[in-house]
Every structure is written in structure tokens, then in C-alpha cells.
Amino acid sequence: MTPAVPDSALADTVLARLTARYPEAGDPFRAREMVAYMKGVAPFLGIRTPERRAVSRTVLEGLPRPHEADCTAVALRCFALPEREYHYFAVDYLRRYVSRCSSGFLPVARALVTTESWWDTVDHLAAHVVGPLVAADPALAERMDAWIEDDDLWVARTALLHQLRFKDATDAERLFAYCLRRAAHPDFFIRKAIGWALREYAKTAPAEVRSFVADHETDLAPLSVREALKNL
Description:
Structural class: mainly alpha
CATH topology of the domain at 9-170: Leucine-rich Repeat Variant
Oligomer: single chain
Largest sheet: none
Distance between the termini: 42 Å
CATH class of the domain at 9-170: Mainly Alpha
Strand content: under 5%
């Protein structure tokens, strides 16, 4: 269930500027290339990332820092627009202002993860939005325990990846348990996420990851093992 969009004068201003300036920066030929590259997950305006972020700076120029309700309104309204660049704007906005959001923002993050789901938005939401929310409120880790069991593979992928930036603060027991819980999942994106999460933690705890993989190599998919050990 998608959370309700709260009233927000700030979101009104952001969306008015955004929907005026983004289309002006678009390129129809580039848009077709982007649609093909992203397997048709959404239409595109055709704005390259550096150009898009430059336009985004003009959109936000002179505006105040948002409150949580503003973040909710901006994100949900952007994700309700069809073109993918608006979704990217929302993700960048949340990355910048996630510290303004409480643990109550997690249902909004889940709604975004499950909207036009693909790795290009989900992975950033996992590492840079959901992860910081859990880090700020460790009680949310129990919510991740439910997400890893979810039938939606993108929700489960988010649970696997939310600790990507935790380094020494990584809950290794939880990470390893998640990897084993979904080790037999048939989807590429889950198996890849298992390997990626382990590879990232190996930068902090290489011996622990090497030992885990050695103990469970027959349980993990070959893809997960290759990704986990890539830098070891």
C-alpha cells in the first residue's frame, strides 16, 4: 500500500521547477538509448547524469532543507511521474536529506523500492536511504528480517544490500544469515546481491567472509561465490 502524499508547499515548488526544467534538457534520441539499456523499465527524457544533476542544482537553488513530510511528498510525487529521470531526482534528494527523516519514513522507502523496480533506483535506495534509516534506529533491523523473507525480490535485495556502507558497524551475523536464507533463490539479482554484500563486507573483514564462503560454498550459488571472493 502506497503511503498518502502529504501536503507540502516545498514539494509544490520543487515539482513545478523540476517538470519545467527537466524536459528542456531532454534528448529524444538519447532517451531511446536509455530505454533500451534499462530494458524498458520506464520511459526516459534523455538526460545524462552530469547534466541532470546540474539541472537539479538549479531546481533546488535557494530552497530550504526539507522536513520529513517534504521528503515524502517530493519522493512520492516524483515516482508517480513516468520518466525515469524524475525517479533519479527523488533518490538523489533522499540521499541528500535522509538525515531529516525518522524511522517512520521506512514505509515510504519500501513504496519507492516497489515502484517501477530495477537496480538503478533500488540499489541506491537500499544503501543510501534504507541503510541510514536502520543505522539511525537499530530497531528497524527487525523490519529487515521481514524484508529478507519478502516475495518481492527487490524488497529482499534491499534487505541484503542495506548494510553496504556500514563497514565496522555491519551486523555480520545478520548479513550471513540473510545470505544463507536466500542462497537458493533462482533470480540473478538476488544471487548477485548476496555476492556484492559479502564482497563489500570483505573490505572490512576479509577473513570472516573467506571463512563464511568456505563453510557454505555448496549452499551458495556459483555467482554469489565469485562475486564474494572477487577482491580476496
